[in-house]
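Record format v2
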Amino acid sequence: AQKITQTQPGMFVQEKEAVTLDCTYDTSDPSYGLFWYKQPSSGEMIFLIYQGSYDQQNATEGRYSLNFQKARKSANLVISASQLGDSAMYFCAMRGTHFGNEKLTFGTGTRLTIIP
Amino acid sequence: GAGVSQTPSNKVTEKGKYVELRCDPISGHTALYWYRQSLGQGPEFLIYFQGTGAADDSGLPNDRFFAVRPEGSVSTLKIQRTERGDSAVYLCASSAEEGANGELFFGEGSRLTVL
């Protein structure tokens, strides 16, 4: 079984500041992937960034970076220079390789609001 | 089409009725997933297909829910004797790759409202 925990139900951040969204996970799989998705009010799920459990370096995609600390089982998303368009729900998710873990398991999400 | 297509986008039905929701994945994607998302919650896994077969249906809440993918492409989620608690957005996703790093591409969802 695998589990994702997001402990911040909501966050308010000033525009242009950096923000860190927390995510911890639990799994019995030795190999797994960690994902972050953005869901604006329109409802679509937008893929942001991926980190493999054996990747040596933290993933980065433009203003998004993933602070992966394997020993602590955390995969925090960092958004630099936040913009008003970043206001949305953000979901951390993971996917394993063992039977029963191939599905993407989501956390409960963090609602991020960027203040002008 | 270019992305995952779900129909209908909105469905309003009465308690006790039967409902079908359709998902057309990205062409060539072998893996297909159904999720349910209630208001303010994260997506909740329902069922996962690899080709035509259900590889994991552990998320289906009860025997009123059933899904098929007869030709390994389009999938239909079927809900019998709908209840008000079934109201949610039903998301479909597809993936080209097996393994942990296969990105899931989501459709825009089918919003089901049971009156």
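The first strand of chain A starts at residue 2 and ends at 5.
The mean pLDDT of chain A is 94.
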